[in-house]
Amino acid sequence: MSISVQDLPRELAAALRPEPTDRIELIGLRARGHHGVLETERREGQDFLVDLTMEVDTAPAARTDALGRTVNYAQVADAAVAEIEGGPHQLIETLASRIAERVLTEQILVRRIEVMLHKPSAPIPHPFGDVRVRIGRRAGPVPAVLALGSNLGDREEHLTRALELLRAAEGIEVAWTGPVVETDPVGGVDQGAFLNTTIGVLSDRGPWQLLELAHALERDARRVRAVRWGPRTLDVDVITYGDLVQDDEELTLPHPRARKRAFVLAPWQAARPEAMLPGHGPIAALLEAAPDRDGVRPGPHVPGFGS
């Protein structure tokens, strides 16, 4: 059953259709390169200027004043200068594209970039102010893994609803789903058994935007955070975001306990046997060593999962 976003509560609809992200601009960066069609340009070189506009979600950094949650624009400048000083290329179109691709590759938080490359000393036999090319490039979607669990209310319905909302979310493509397993609770709190699964997505959103979506799914299920590791209608954790490894109080990646949690690893391994957990190796080997492995058993067949 497909979900109509227009019929959802405003807060949930906003999470599924987020506002355009913020921008960081680096203007007037200058470096000397040897690019051009003419032999004299390639031999003698000339100055190039570049303006960079990067789409980045700055809210997580603003909340904590933490550099690790935003783009290090000194590193961006280093990347652009390295491309200008490298080459050579005949066309500034090629150089601009190389700058964009390098920044998107090195800065995973940048989801889109616009590069304006200036060639103020272009060999034109007439008075002119500037020659410039402007290009825009978007980063490809990032593969991410989410873990879902429920042990309150209609457990199957909570998982199904979360999957439907993920499919309706802008900038999210559900790539695969693991089977649903039933698991004994961990953490020492007396409570009922969980239904757990994992979902692989391709995300055009940054990691904190993906976390915010996960929290929105939990709120939709009316999760109450009363007891740590206690019973819950829905738990949604971001397990991986590409190969990103970071230690952050709000979003540590990979998830710090995933490597020891069979209720995460078992459905993941069933769906993607060759998968790796960044920094920890094959999930098949991690599953073999997981301390809660004996507490995981096949769960009910829930439509939409296990494909």
From TrEMBL:
Residues 228-239 form the 7,8-dihydro-6-hydroxymethylpterin-pyrophosphokinase domain. One of its GO terms (biological process) is folic acid biosynthetic process. One of its GO terms (molecular function) is ATP binding. It comes from Brachybacterium endophyticum. It comes from the Bacteria. Catalyzes the conversion of 7,8-dihydroneopterin to 6-hydroxymethyl-7,8-dihydropterin. Pathway: Cofactor biosynthesis; tetrahydrofolate biosynthesis; 2-amino-4-hydroxy-6-hydroxymethyl-7,8-dihydropteridine diphosphate from 7,8-dihydroneopterin triphosphate: step 4/4; Cofactor biosynthesis; tetrahydrofolate biosynthesis; 2-amino-4-hydroxy-6-hydroxymethyl-7,8-dihydropteridine diphosphate from 7,8-dihydroneopterin triphosphate: step 3/4. Keywords: ATP-binding, Folate biosynthesis, Kinase, Lyase, Nucleotide-binding, Transferase. This is Bifunctional folate synthesis protein. It catalyses: 6-hydroxymethyl-7,8-dihydropterin + ATP = (7,8-dihydropterin-6-yl)methyl diphosphate + AMP + H(+); 7,8-dihydroneopterin = 6-hydroxymethyl-7,8-dihydropterin + glycolaldehyde. SMART domains: FolB. The keyword Transferase applies. In the N-terminal section; belongs to the DHNA family. Belongs to the DHNA family. Its EC number is 4.1.2.25, 2.7.6.3.
